Sequence to fold (280 residues):
Amino acid sequence: MFRSVCRISSRMAPSACRNIVGRPIMASSILAQRFYSANLSKDQVSQRVIDVIKAFDKNSPNIVNKQISSDTQFHKDLGLDSLDTVELLVAIEEEFDIEIPDKVADDLRSVGETVDYIASNPDAN
Amino acid sequence: MDRARVLQSYRGLIRTILKYERPSKVANWVTLQKTMITKLEYFKKQNPKLPHQDTDRQLESWKKLDPEKNKSLNLFISDSKQLRSILENDLKWDDKIAQGQNVDGIFEHAFDIIKFLDSQREYTELVDRYNPGSKLTQNEKIKRTANVVGLDVPA
Fold:
């Protein structure tokens, strides 16, 4: 009985049904995620972090033209205040699908530190 | 102490608002993108004699935009300035602290907002998940209904 319901709803919305019935699909997607995160190298991480920073042009349009390296400090070099930094870190969290705990996030002051933290986080992908 | 709490609640608010507003924001931008492309192409057809370098450039940039992948759209909230200004001006921290008032209420309020928005988002997601057909257009519904009994809608 339930199978027929699921067959109908899988036609309706494959993505919604996958979570309910498609156990093999789900398992393989978890597996794929693991493989991917294991492959996350530091260069990839820093490139993506820099992309996120470049996309953050609302408050300070001069960020786009700046050279960003791992030594770049959020406050000193990019001119972000503490609230801007919070916003940027949340964006980076979203990009890598992780949540940086408050204590760690308050101590992240430069691009390099952030990249190190993300590279050391097994959940990042 | 208070600084850490302010940052903590600000971070929570940004996180939550970002997740909360993203689906509708992306949808709005997809619609806007379609409208703009149609408008520009119509303008080009209407005025075949004009030079169209500028229109072409605009068209190009609109076509290149991918609202689902664009980092500025997906990773940052659209109006953080307003949130900042509430935090910096409307709350009047310094007055309250100078008068010896308790500021715990403000934090509690912020965490209430976070909880509310999170629950609201989750509720919407669940409603969508349990009503898989609710977002389909009428034509799609008819097509799928016909499919259930093994029929195809004529193209």
